[in-house]
Amino acid sequence: MSGSTKQKDRIVLSIKRCIESEFLESDWDELAYLTNGKDIIYKHHRLLQSHRFGDPDYGSCIFQVIEQLLDRDPGNLQIIIDFIRLQEWLKENNPQDFEELYGHTQPLLDTTEEMAIANSFELNQHIARVRRSVESDPELAVGSTKELIESVLKTILEGFGEEIGKDDLTKLLKRTQRVLNLSPSEIDSNMKGAEIIKRTLNNIGQVVIGVDELRNIYGTGHGKVHKSGITPRHARLVVGTGATLAIFLMETFEMQKQKDTGASS
Questions:
Q1: Cα Rg for the chain, rounded, in angstroms?
Q2: What is the 3-state secondary structure (H, E, C) of 183-223?
Q3: pLDDT (mean) for 5-10
């Protein structure tokens, strides 16, 4: 079993223990909405009834529901962790697990593949934080989306041993597309669907430019402290588009590194 799988299992176990100890039925209601899991939670044949009556199968029901929520969207893991304040709960109630999951100063994962999984886990944390700011502070959400994309581009370039320098976002993207073999100019024009692929890859650049420009107009940064008037609706569009792009680039990076590792072994 890989280190990453062991870590995830320990996290899920800790989540189960925290929920079993602390959750009210209203907490399940909130989690259902946060994770887009209303059907999973409300239609589970035993979960809520078992909770109400303190039945002995409640813990098993929690495991089943959590796994279904994670199967639907792996990003739900960080949403659940943040919602139940797992780190704080473990520190107070289970110091040993707290030390194992949060007390290390070095990564628990050390192979290339597992480090890539760890990068994705951190990315999900960042995206979850950005999304939580959409309603309360849309300017912050827009600014944070730009920072998210920039962080992903720099992480990928550093992963390939590239010097970051002082390149702006557009140049960082072009360099990232090159190392990930996503540059439109490198697509063979004779291959099937070549023009569609080139157009799609060019659109990646348009997304990055758009997010960067919106950040300059509406987002935080450059010492801005005033409200711009941007609505959560528009911020949600920026965050959704930026998050999708960030995940795509990171997944491509992970696949490329795994491929390179396999070729060299």
A1: 21
A2: CHHHCCCCCCCHHHHHHHHHHHHHHHHHHHHHHHHHCCCCC
A3: 78
Average pLDDT, the chain: 81
How far is the CA of 137 from the CAs of 36, 37, 62, 65, 70, in angstroms?
A: 22, 25, 33, 31, 27
Q: Which residues, at least 6 apart from 215, have a Cβ–Cβ distance to it below 8 Å? A: 142, 143, 145, 146, 221
| Model pLDDT, residue 29 | 94
Give the pLDDT confidence of 41-74 residue by residue, as tens digits: 999 999 999 999 999 999 999 999 999 999 999 8
Q: Give the separation between CA 252 and CA 119, rounded to whole angstroms.
A: 12
d(CA 52, CA 55) in angstroms, rounded, equals 8
Q: Which two tokens stand for residue 50?
A: 């078992």
From residue 228, how far is each of 47, 139, 250 by CA, in Å?
A: 44, 7, 31
- For residue range 208-243, list pLDDT tens digits in order: 888 888 777 765 554 444 455 678 888 888 888 888
What is the three-class DSSP state of 19?
Answer: helix
Kindly provide the b/e burial profile for residues 15-43, where b requires at least 16 CB atoms within 10 angstroms of the residue's own CB. bbbbbeeebeeeebeebbebbebeebbee
Per-residue model confidence (pLDDT) at position 108 = 32
